Sequence to fold (447 residues):
Amino acid sequence: MPKWMPRMTDARLIPRDRSAHPVPRDPDYKTSVARSPNLPLLSMPSTLTEETGPVFGHGLIGALDNNLILNFSQGAAPAIGERILLHGRVMDENARPVPNTLVEIWQANAGGRYRHVKDTYFAPLDPNFGGCGRTLTDENGQYQFLTIRPGAYPWPNRGNDWRPMHVHYSIFGQGFGQRLITQCYFEGDPLIDRCPIVATIKDRSQIDRLVAPLDMARAKPMDFLAYKFDIVLRGRRQTMFENRPEGM
Amino acid sequence: MVQKLDTLTETPSQTAGPYVHIGCIPSFAGVEGVYPEDLGLRAVEQGAKGETITITGSVHDGTGWTLRDAMLESWQADAVGLYPGQDGADPKVNGFCRFAADKDSGEFTLQTIKPGAVPGPDGTWQAPHIALWIVARGINTGLQTRIYFEDEDNSADPLLARIEQRPRVETLIAKKTGDGQYRFDIRLQGDGETVFLDI
Fold:
């Protein structure tokens, strides 16, 4: 049995506004120079291929999947670090919630080290931290993770580049054309304005969209702080004056 | 001044980075035990109808170097052209698959069934194809493209018809290398640059 259940869509996706996104090629983010297409993208209205997509059921999600403090040890021992609740809402461009959609996150540990065969930074691994989590949004598009605040870390780019504290996000939406991967940064981190990956986004107001504010209303006294990170996916064009057979 | 729209702007993309596997294919990163198994391991289950096929390939940068850290996702219809969720779709076809470039060779492999043609805009039919989404360090917004097949009739496909420079159509067509075997190489930049989509 597949672990995801089907869902149909019935309207074209709103074309992506590329000015809201990073430039593909930015010499200050060196790896992008040889990995970005030279030629223009081929633009076309979405088809059934992009308007449909995998849908994942609640059976997929384990009880600890959205608790990165405990999910690597399966509850045996907590990860080291500043305990935080990372929560928010997934909406579309029409300001409608995106319910029951899969949100996956991954991050470095409190010392800025990833549990990945390719990460050789000498900050130590935390034996109780894996660094991944996942959850489904509820009927209002809300999600939450309990995790630790990731550390900043150096990376080979220019002479002395450091990534700001960040959590990677992967969001599905309801059609394959809505697929998005992004990163969540934290209010007040002075490294945000020095990061060449952040700076691939040329619209300052769009950078601000990636910075999660401290949210004391959701913090739990004597337990964890909270940060809010809302996400907007591509929407579907409204079709009041355009009838077409479902799925066409 | 004008009235304010009540629409929102899409959240900007950021690169998936070199450690994307931790979140998306944890076992590849060496993270075991958080989930029972990685998501999207199989495009199809045993017993899916249609021709079983294997597509291998790799992702090359503008210098010709093969990426070792790319992650790919695919989405496709079943053998008669129905997507999971449509009435009558083959329940053994998941449609979605995730796979990584090998960390030593850069080769990727997708095992699936060949999809059927699916409806396109304005009464057209799209030739059998598999949608691909490619993310990696250095790719700031995930790249969309498609795999078509050289042994299918692609002549009336509405997407391929939009490609002005006709030789570039070939960049979206998997080459048959044997019975049920196809090769599909992706070139991010430069000679033979793959057609990427804004769709």
